[in-house]
């Protein structure tokens, strides 16, 4: 064989750099999400910042992108009782991307599962609000998450439990886009499709950015809706910051009630904080300066 | 032993509506009677152990007691984070029935040999680790699992193992069974090593060494009181396990005695598999012979250790 012989598969040589990414124009994800934030969305984000200030740290970008999805679930979709959090007939919500916990803590506090003042102790030694949500510690949290790829299998088990017990509880699992790299997510998706778990809804916080950079460069997911469809789900795409759109999708009967649903929420990482939107360096901050905090307050004023 | 454990899942399912069975990709004839009687509580979910563990956790969070069966290495190594986080952190009553503990799958090679399963399961908070000696004891264990509020790892042996326990032994999780009262020496075993240890004690008796046998079916939580009590009465302790040297029964016994009897532990020897992936195939028995896990080899090792112990104790 000569060095010049072309590859039968016409593959580029191994030492060639990957193709350049498309030019960056505005926050990643902004092409699919342009809904304005209303007063309630700003209020919930201010609660997130209250906890960030209390703990002096946190996953900022990851907590801002799923605020509307969680808000709509708790405001308009799910059945639950803050004064009876273990009520057996409730709908279940699992935040599989546990690092986005500040969004969940903000909504749970707002709904009265625990006092808002607890947010000031976020991540402190004696706090019940840690950097990832824990079952048995935080009232209203259905499963301890933080290690990724655990929420959907647990949600499948809860949906099967409801079926065995004759309950009509729905189960909602919110996953990160980077989290979809975990194989266990797809094991659970196969299983949910097989069991035709119409009561199960997976929401994907598709903010297009993972810790290391754009999802499209680190581990591309497209065609994402087609993947979920292929695993037996009804797949729906929404503007993940548009509460009207989210409400419409999450309260509507699924296209096929014998299939689980995947709601792909197109979001912007860091949404609502102009200087953090679509910027990977705001995925997580282990330390927040006074000027960082002043900027966060100013952005949400 | 496996047949008995699975039949017992069916019995437990009849007795308690919280019991469900989840298999991965087991034989087509597995638990068909339970599948026919309780189709809604029988799940065969394919080769997806991480999902199976998480799914069991979800069911347990809503009040069920899932019994999972598949090959031990896939319940331990493959899905370790799910076992740690979904089962142990949540402290849920899920039961892992682990086929092929130790070197049962010798002909299949090291990918299928659960030689460090006790060590890694024992490392997890809230986990209970059990290895019974025979099918009759399995039956007694399975009844005890119904109301134990924590996850349990149940190590299975090959099947058809000689029955060496009796109904009078009873069964309480976390409570060791003194099968033979000690004289100078105490053998501590777990799982199917009880049989060879009892035979070794007979051989030693014939040679004038009076040897007791403590069956530590529950390695975690270990029966520290029984160990401490007996350690004060003997001049040598020998642990015997079908598991690597690292982190298994022998380690658990040493740790317990070191914590409870600092400076007063009698001489202690550990008989186990070496800290190595097995390189041979063949049969479980051949691996037992290779590693000194037979009655004559145990007796010989005890006799040698007894002589050394006497020398160590000499002024």
TrEMBL record, chain A:
Renumbered to this chain, region (Disordered) spans 1-30
* Cross-referenced Pfam families: Transketolase_N (PF00456)
InterPro entries assigned: THDP-binding, Transketolase_N
Among CDD domains, the record links this protein to: TPP_TK (cd02012)
> Could you tell me which SUPFAM superfamilies the record lists for this protein?
Thiamin diphosphate-binding fold (THDP-binding)
> Which segments constitute the Transketolase N-terminal domain?
44-296
Q: Which domain of life is it from?
A: Bacteria
Under which name does UniProt file this protein?
Transketolase
Q: What species is given as this protein's source?
A: Skermanella aerolata
Instruction: Give the compositionally biased regions (Pro residues).
Output: 9-25
From TrEMBL, chain B:
- InterPro entries the record matches: PDH/Transketolase, THDP-binding, Transketo_C/PFOR_II, Transketolase-like_Pyr-bd, Transketolase_C
Q: Which domain of life is it from?
A: Bacteria
Keyword annotations from UniProtKB, A to Z? Thiamine pyrophosphate
Q: Which Pfam families match?
A: Transket_pyr (PF02779), Transketolase_C (PF02780)
Q: Which cofactors, by name?
A: thiamine diphosphate
Sequence ranges assigned to domain Transketolase-like pyrimidine-binding in this UniProt record: 1-163
Annotated signal sequence range:
none
Q: Which family does it belong to?
A: Belongs to the transketolase family.
**What is the name of the protein in this document?**
Transketolase
């Amino acid at each position: 064989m000569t060095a010049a012989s072309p590859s039968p598969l016409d593959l580029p040589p191994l030492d060639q750099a990957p193709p350049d990414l498309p030019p960056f124009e505005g926050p990643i994800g902004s092409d699919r999400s342009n809904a304005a934030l209303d007063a309630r969305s700003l209020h919930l984000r201010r609660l997130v910042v209250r906890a960030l200030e209390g703990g002096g740290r946190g996953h900022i970008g990851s907590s801002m992108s799923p605020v509307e999805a969680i808000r709509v679930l708790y405001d308009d979709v799910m059945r639950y009782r803050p004064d009876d959090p273990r009520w057996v007939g409730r709908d279940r919500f699992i935040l599989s991307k546990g690092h986005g916990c500040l969004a969940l803590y903000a909504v749970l506090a707002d709904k009265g599962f625990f006092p808002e003042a607890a947010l000031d102790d976020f991540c402190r030694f004696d706090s019940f609000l840690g950097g990832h949500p824990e079952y048995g510690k935080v009232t209203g949290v259905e499963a301890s998450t933080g290690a990724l790829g655990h929420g959907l299998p647990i949600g499948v088990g809860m949906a099967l439990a409801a079926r065995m017990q004759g309950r009509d509880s729905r189960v909602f699992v919110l996953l990160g886009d980077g989290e979809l790299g975990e194989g266990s997510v797809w094991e659970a998706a196969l299983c949910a499709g097989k069991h035709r778990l119409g009561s199960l809804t997976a929401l994907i916080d598709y903010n297009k950015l993972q810790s290391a950079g754009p999802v499209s460069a680190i581990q591309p997911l497209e065609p994402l809706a087609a993947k979920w469809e292929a695993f037996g789900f009804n797949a729906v795409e929404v503007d993940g910051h548009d509460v009207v759109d989210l409400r419409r999708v999450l309260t509507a009967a699924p296209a096929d009630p014998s299939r689980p649903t995947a709601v792909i929420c197109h979001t912007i990482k860091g949404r609502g904080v102009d200087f953090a939107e679509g910027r990977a360096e705001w995925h997580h901050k282990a330390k927040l300066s006074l000027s960082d905090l002043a900027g966060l307050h100013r952005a949400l004023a | 032993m496996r047949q008995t454990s699975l039949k017992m899942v069916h019995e437990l399912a009849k007795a308690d509506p919280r019991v469900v069975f989840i298999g991965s990709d087991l034989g087509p004839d597995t638990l068909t009677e339970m599948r026919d009687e309780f189709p809604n509580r029988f799940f065969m979910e394919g080769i997806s152990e991480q999902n199976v563990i998480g799914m069991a956790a979800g069911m347990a969070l809503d009040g069920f007691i899932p019994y999972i069966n598949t090959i031990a290495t896939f319940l331990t190594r493959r899905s370790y984070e799910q076992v740690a986080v979904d089962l142990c952190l949540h402290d849920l009553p899920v039961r892992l029935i682990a086929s092929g503990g130790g070197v049962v799958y010798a002909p299949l090679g090291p990918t299928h040999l659960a030689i460090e399963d006790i060590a890694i399961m024992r490392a997890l908070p809230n986990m209970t680790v059990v290895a019974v000696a025979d099918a009759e004891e399995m039956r007694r264990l399975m009844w005890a699992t119904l109301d134990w509020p924590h996850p349990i790892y149940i190590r299975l042996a090959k099947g058809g193992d000689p029955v060496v326990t009796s109904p009078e032994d009873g069964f309480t999780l976390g409570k060791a069974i003194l099968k033979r009262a000690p004289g100078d020496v105490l053998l501590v075993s777990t799982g199917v090593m009880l049989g060879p240890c009892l035979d070794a004690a007979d051989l030693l008796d014939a040679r004038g060494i009076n040897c007791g046998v403590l069956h530590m079916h529950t390695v975690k939580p270990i029966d520290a009181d029984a160990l401490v009590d007996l350690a004060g009465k003997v001049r040598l302790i020998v642990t015997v396990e079908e598991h690597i040297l690292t982190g298994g029964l022998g380690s658990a016994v040493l740790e317990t005695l070191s914590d409870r009897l600092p400076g007063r532990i009698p001489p202690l020897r550990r008989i186990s598999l070496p800290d190595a992936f097995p390189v041979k195939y063949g049969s479980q028995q051949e691996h037992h012979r290779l590693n000194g896990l037979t009655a004559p080899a145990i007796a010989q090792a005890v006799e040698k250790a007894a002589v050394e112990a006497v020398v160590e104790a000499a002024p």
